[in-house]
């Protein structure tokens, strides 16, 4: 399981009022976003029209991570805060650690899709406390807490504060159900709705303690990714332990149809005037425009989510232009996808 610096859990527990939670919920928004570029990078490097089952697994997790970021943003609005998304500090450095000291040394890269990336990074990001089938683990060191404990501490504190925590929302929430289901993205207005929303974030990532699926019947992120590593679909198997087994249709990652992308790219290191540098900067600028639209959507202009989703499709198209461009000094490699804050080029 990923570990979190315990000071964040302690700060939540020490909160004296809703405003004291604003910084912690902002950190949760940053955490939910931080996984999206690395997942997007892997997804985009799958050549279009190939590796479809693998692409659909990664895409399904991506959509739910965007949902989780939206839920955390709506929670901050409900508590009277203002999500900060259009901000250079919002974007993590890749390769690097996740926000809030998450991962106890886990370094997250921007890299092409591979079994190793899914196993060593993606599954580590999504790992539940006790991955099924349950195994014997050494006792956890008391110097760390877990993401689940962090969210549980927020829920406990909201129950302690009661209805007054939601008496002064900062603006309208983003509730566009064209993009996310109404039973997953809903208005947060009281303790019960807030705790239900938090529970969605945790369950979709980890599943339940006795099953790899959540209460809605969806496979949790960790086990979705494990399908790629095992090379088989996870299916119901009544005679198997916990009722599920990797015994379904084969899943094969065809590396011949994965772009050989430069890992952890830096546009500034590309030759000035080169096409590689130009398309790399265009991609980073489009990503920054997406962050700007999301910021507006969660700061008084909820309809800006439609613009944000349009920019997401534009990012997909631009990614192909970047990946089709060879590196100037390494023709066998594609120019890399740069997820950095780039307000202009």
UniProtKB/TrEMBL annotation:
Residue span, Iminophenyl-pyruvate dimer synthase domain: 25-229
Region span, Disordered: 326-345
InterPro entries: Ferritin-like, Ferritin-like_SF, VioB/RebD_dom
Bias (Polar residues): 331-345
Pfam families named among the record's database cross-references: Ferritin-like (PF12902)
Name the record gives this protein: Ferritin-like protein
Natural source organism: Pyxidicoccus parkwayensis
């Amino acid at each position: 399981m990923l570990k979190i610096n315990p000071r964040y859990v302690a700060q939540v527990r020490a909160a004296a009022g809703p405003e004291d939670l604003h910084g912690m919920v902002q950190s949760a928004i940053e955490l939910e976003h931080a996984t999206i570029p690395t997942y997007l990078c892997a997804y985009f490097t799958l050549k279009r029209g190939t590796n479809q089952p693998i692409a659909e697994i990664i895409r399904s997790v991506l959509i739910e991570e965007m949902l989780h970021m939206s839920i955390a943003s709506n929670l901050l609005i409900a508590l009277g805060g203002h999500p900060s998304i259009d901000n250079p500090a919002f974007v993590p450095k890749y390769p690097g650690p996740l926000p809030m000291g998450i991962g106890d040394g886990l370094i997250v890269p921007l890299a092409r899709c591979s079994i190793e990336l899914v196993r060593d990074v993606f599954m580590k990001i999504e790992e539940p406390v006790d991955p099924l089938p349950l195994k014997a683990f050494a006792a956890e060191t008391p110097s760390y807490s877990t993401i689940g404990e962090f969210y549980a501490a927020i829920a406990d504190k909201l129950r302690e504060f009661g209805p007054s925590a939601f008496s002064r929302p900062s603006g309208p929430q983003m509730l566009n159900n064209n993009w996310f289901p109404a039973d997953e993205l809903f208005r947060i207005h009281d303790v019960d709705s807030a705790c239900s929303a938090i529970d969605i974030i945790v369950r979709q990532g980890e599943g339940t303690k006795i099953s790899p699926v959540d209460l809605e019947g969806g496979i949790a992120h960790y086990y979705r990714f494990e399908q790629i590593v095992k090379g088989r679909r996870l299916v119901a198997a009544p005679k198997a332990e916990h009722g599920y087994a990797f015994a379904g249709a084969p899943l094969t990652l065809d590396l011949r149809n994965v772009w050989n992308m430069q890992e952890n790219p830096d546009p500034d290191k590309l030759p000035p005037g080169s096409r590689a540098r130009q398309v790399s900067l265009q991609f980073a600028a489009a990503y920054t425009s997406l962050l700007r639209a999301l910021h507006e959507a969660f700061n008084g202009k909820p309809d800006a989510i439609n613009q944000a989703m349009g920019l997401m499709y534009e990012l997909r198209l631009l990614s192909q232009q970047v990946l089709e461009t060879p590196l100037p000094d390494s023709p066998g490699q594609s120019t890399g996808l740069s997820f950095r804050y780039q307000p202009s080029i």
